[in-house]
Design a protein that fits this description.
The complex is a heterotrimer of chains A (about 130), B (about 120) and C (about 400). Chain A has about 130 residues and is mainly α. Chain A is built from 6 helices and no strands. The mean pLDDT of chain A is about 90. With about 120 residues, chain B is α+β, with helices and mostly antiparallel strands. In chain B, helix 2 packs antiparallel against helix 3 (about 55-65). The longest helix of chain B is centred in the middle third of the chain and has 14 residues, at about 55-65. Helix content of chain C is about 75%, strand content about 0%. In chain C, helix 10 packs across helix 16 (about 335-350). The chains are: A mainly alpha (about 130), B alpha+beta (about 120), C mainly alpha (about 400). The interface of A and C includes residues 37, 40, 59 and 66 of A.
């Protein structure tokens, strides 16, 4: 057990150093991808009347904080321009959709929420595919 | 009986079995004739502080001069006050509430706890 | 008859005491990131905690003394001082995390930010301790704690693939993110084997005036209570594995965990999660604050007992009052409750030897425990436990740095 852990520790430290900027970026956007999936799920549950409006809003605010941070990370990344652009576009889509959801749940605008859910799903799918291909 | 194993750090209680601190220190009396014998116990934070390091005790005494409600940092309990020694505690022929061991307890009860509703104090 | 009742109550209490903010955080993270693959670490921790809780209860039943009390008496003040200070700091962190859990539950229900709830929650926890007797606390938290069984029901409703769940009972190498995998494994162990548990349990046995005749009751309570308790945690892992993992939701914030039950129970799932979290954390916060008082009172030989009126043990009350106040500061100053929890659980895992080693030594002292001292099997297991805790002490903090999210 101990040896395994020590091995993993060394391996982990080693991989940290050898990572290419692309791999590093894909790892750093993990939380943002998870937030897109969260917003999609939260929106679906709101449409099903399973979660209250205040919860969706609080979740949106927490997600926006993380998306903003990730957007900055992407801008500062050394990864290839095409990858950065793709990632950045998804984050922008999700950020816009999050703002739309924030307003729509207050106005009980179910159509906008349903549309935003689709956009979260699409953005998350793009990021997931990128990660799979790394 | 082994004085460090069986006496030092042991729970002390009064006649009514109210807990009143632990044996923080032991003082032996060495006489010319006969073996050394336990003279008294010492209780108090100052005694504990000295067990860590004499400097810690000096710091504590400096703080105490400004803040403490106790008259003396070290309470002395003569061996003659011991009523019985059980595996759980050492019973003393004292009333805890009247000893310096309860200085802080009395002060807290009077100035803090009694002022909060529901403390059970009459 | 009385013993049967005690047994039932003890088991309920143990179930309630097992599941707290640390379990919610680490189990939902484990399920979301690795589905059922980390169930083994929960099982391992459960076995360890059953042995350690059984020992601390047996010790209290035979000697009528709680652990902090005996450790100072037996090993001396200067030996006890360092563990005592370390555990005091950790208990404050745990208390902060549990208060954070209650604040988050209230945030879910009311929508108000966590900072607003920090002080009201502190007052609520304090009021329980100020007015309630040990029995009331034991009974109310244990009965209310049954609501956490919602996680087990939800797990069953999702019909998880049985063979995959069972396969998770054995350790396997992760397919992705090995650092994160091992870090969560360690933090689950830290969440289950919380040091306060042993102080609380042994001091509680003294408060309930257990004697030697309670040794069998104690054993049953430890095995069944902790066993059932771990069922709730496994339920949480399975639910997270069925609901969050397939959607690609990782738990980096409690809002994500809050969605866990909504699929099994439309509408009520959200409420059930909030209530379960609130009650589990409230029970744990009370227990941690009491453990603080127990360890201070016993270390310095003060009069102690939750059944005494506050005016009879002013210093005992002072300790929990100050602890709760300090514990509430984390939320008041806007710490992230999930980050605080995960950090605390990793530190919990790192300091386990401090708890396990003195216990192993005491449990073998025949002058204290007579024929109830540890047998060969218990000792083999305890040596294994000590070795495990030493490994955890070495790896948990480095793992937190490389694998913590």
């Amino acid at each position: 057990m101990r040896r395994h852990l020590a091995f993993f520790l060394c391996a982990a430290l080693a991989t940290c150093r050898q990572q290419s900027p692309e791999q590093k970026l894909l790892k750093e956007i993990d939380p943002a991808a998870s937030w897109m999936a969260t917003l999609q799920f939260a929106g679906e549950q709101w449409l099903a009347n399973s979660v209250p409006t205040r919860f969706v809003r609080a979740t949106v605010h927490a997600a926006q904080k993380d998306l903003k941070k990730t957007a900055r990370t992407v801008d500062q990344s050394q990864a290839a321009q095409s990858l950065r652009d793709t990632v950045r576009r998804q984050i922008d889509v999700a950020t816009a959709a999050a703002a739309a959801v924030d307003r729509a749940v207050q106005d009980n605008d179910r159509r906008t929420v349903a549309m935003s859910v689709q956009r979260f799903a699409a953005a998350h799918e793009v990021l997931r595919k990128l990660e799979e291909s790394r | 009986m082994d004085i460090v194993r069986d006496i030092l750090d042991k729970q002390l209680c009064d006649r009514e079995e109210i807990f009143m601190g632990r044996v923080d220190g032991l003082v032996l009396e060495v006489s010319k004739d006969g073996p050394p014998r336990v003279d008294h116990f010492e209780l108090g934070f100052a005694v504990l502080a000295r067990r860590i390091h004499p400097r810690v005790e000096r710091w504590l005494q400096a703080i105490r001069k400004r803040w403490s409600v106790r008259k003396n940092a070290r309470q002395i309990v003569p061996w003659s006050a011991v009523l019985e020694i059980t595996p759980q505690h050492i019973k003393l022929d004292l009333a805890a509430l009247e000893t310096p061991a309860f200085d802080w307890e009395r002060w807290l009860r009077k100035h803090v706890i009694r002022k909060i509703p529901g403390s059970g104090a009459e | 008859m009385k013993k049967a009742l005690q047994l039932a109550l003890g088991i309920l209490t143990a179930i309630g005491g097992f599941f707290d903010v640390g379990n919610i955080a680490t189990c939902s993270q484990a399920g979301a990131a690795f589905r059922f693959q980390l169930i083994w670490s929960l099982l391992l921790a459960t076995i360890v905690v059953i042995f350690l809780v059984e020992m601390s209860g047996r010790f209290a039943a035979v000697t009528q003394k709680a652990l902090p009390d005996t450790i100072r008496e037996h090993f001396g003040f200067t030996f006890w001082l360092v563990p005592f200070l370390i555990l005091t700091v950790i208990h404050l962190l745990v208390l902060g995390a549990e208060i954070g859990g209650i604040c988050f539950a209230l945030h879910l229900v009311t929508g108000l930010p966590l900072q607003v709830w920090a002080l009201p929650v502190a007052v609520l926890v304090w009021l329980f301790l100020w007015r309630a007797t040990f029995k009331t606390i034991e009974n109310s938290t244990s009965l209310l704690g049954l609501i956490t069984l919602a996680f087990v029901v939800a797990a069953a409703m999702h019909h998880p693939p049985t063979h995959e769940v069972l396969a998770g009972a054995l350790p396997t190498m992760p397919s992705h993110d090995p650092e994160n995998y091992w870090f969560i494994a360690v933090s689950i162990i830290g969440a289950v084997i919380a040091p306060y548990l042993f102080y609380f349990y042994s001091s509680g046995a003294v408060e309930d005036q257990w004697d030697v005749s309670y040794v069998p009751v104690n054993r049953a309570v430890a095995v069944m209570g902790m066993g059932f308790g771990s069922l709730v945690s496994i339920g949480a892992i399975v639910v997270a594995g069925m609901v969050l993992a397939p959607r690609g939701i990782r738990v980096t914030d409690y809002h994500q965990a809050a969605l866990m039950l909504t699929q099994a129970f439309p509408f009520w799932g959200y409420v059930l999660f909030a209530v379960s979290m609130g009650i589990a954390c409230l029970g744990a916060a009370i227990e941690v604050a009491l453990s603080m008082s127990y360890s201070f009172a016993q270390t310095f030989g003060w009069n102690w007992g939750e059944d005494l009126e506050p005016a009879e043990d002013a210093r005992f009350c002072l300790v929990y009052t100050v602890s709760i106040l300090l514990g509430s500061l984390f939320m008041l100053f806007g710490f992230d409750p999930l980050k605080l929890t995960i950090l605390t659980m990793a530190i919990n895992a790192a300091v386990l030897p401090v708890v396990a080693i003195p216990m192993l030594l005491l449990m073998n002292d025949r002058t204290l425990l007579r024929e109830h001292a540890n047998g060969v099997i218990s000792n083999v297991v305890t040596v294994g436990i000590v070795l495990l805790t030493l490994v955890l002490a070495v790896v948990s903090i480095p793992l937190m740095i490389v694998g913590g999210s």
